[in-house]
Amino acid sequence: MEPVRLAVVGAGLVGSKHARLVSALPASSLVAICDLDSQRKSVAERFDVPFYQDLDALLAERNPEGVIIATPNGTHSAVAEACTRTAIDMLIEKPIANTVAEAQRIVQSAEEAGCQVLVGQHRRHNPLIQEARSIVQGDTLGRLIAVSIMWALLKPADWYQVDWRCRRPSGGPVMINLIHDLDVLRFICGEIRQVYAQSGSSARGLEVEDSLSITLSFASGALGSIVASDAAPSPWSYELTSGENSYYFHTSANSYYFLGTRASLALPKMELWRYADPARVGWQHPLEQSRRKVARADPLVRQLEHFCRVVRRNEPPLVDGRDGTRSLAVALAVLESIDRKTPVELA
């Protein structure tokens, strides 16, 4: 079949990466790039495609089959509305929007227009995450009791020289980083029913948080915790431990821990711990460790391949608009809990 014709809207750091992947993938063809900033024309020139500052003109003249939306979160709704007017399928970078109301408008408009929406929670496409889901939701661990995440790294000094990263609702590690981890927890462990969070900003003194402690309750009855900071040098974060992005220094450590009644799992090293003899259990008996081997693959490439199949109606979106909205709601509940200093229930 002919490559799927795709356009990228938003040519910043993330959009440029999408453009590179679209250009390199045999299943897709990059037909145009759109950005309000005329200086981003250089990105289009790099890939030898037309550059537009007017999205409606791009859609009319280049006739893409799908659009990748990598603009600032607060503009996702307006860009998606333009796409739905011409019934174009969309891959929308996470979070799907800044508010649940905006996200719901995107979902409703897309459904009325017959558009497919894939939300860019790309970690779900990582074979490590998919295997962890299979283990947790199978019978290997027994009943899931708890999950714990350590997420700590030091962002470079110039990261917060960009104004929107210093302010809500888009800035801060909850909406930029931890929304990925919260989505992964939903994918692996099931729906989150309550969050209680506290935050601090003493390291940088900005409006946004630089450290957090989050307690989670799952619909299954399992409990969870996340300790997070983007102001502390450490080897314990998904970005550094998973190795899925070569931009980050890679460490040989775990950052996710799933505790079950029969066994426990540490991710991303995929270490399983359980008693060697099921008839002899308890803290005085020896535990054995094994590792589940998983073939590595770039989740962004797999997400793009999936989006091409979604556009061709060969499979439904792994993370559709409604699913992406639920992960957004969890992240916003964390921020609400911080502000209210009380647990927040999720519908």
Describe this structure in words.
By secondary structure, this protein is an alpha/beta fold. 33% of the residues lie in helices and 24% in strands. The chain has 10 helices and 15 strands. A 9-stranded mixed beta sheet has the order 14-13-12-11-7-10-9-8-15. The protein is globular, with a radius of gyration of 21 Å. The protein starts with a strand and ends with a strand. The relative contact order is 0.15. The model has no long low-confidence stretch (mean pLDDT 96).
List keywords for this structure.
single chain, 347 residues, alpha/beta, nine-stranded mixed sheet, six-stranded parallel sheet, 24% strand, globular
Short summary of the structure?
The chain is 33% helix and 24% strand. The chain has helices at 13-24, 41-46, 55-62, 76-85, 100-113, 127-137, 173-189, 238-242, 299-311, 321-340; strands at 4-9, 28-34, 51-52, 66-69, 89-93, 117-120, 144-152, 192-200, 211-218, 223-229, 256-260, 264-267, 271-275, 287-291, 344-345. The chain starts with a strand and ends with a strand.
* N/C terminus separation: 43 Å
SSE class: alpha/beta
Share of helical residues: 25-40%
The portion of residues forming beta strands comes to: 15-25%
Count of helical segments? 10
The geometry reads as globular
Total E-strand runs: 15
The Cα radius of gyration reads 21 Å
Uncertain residue segments: none
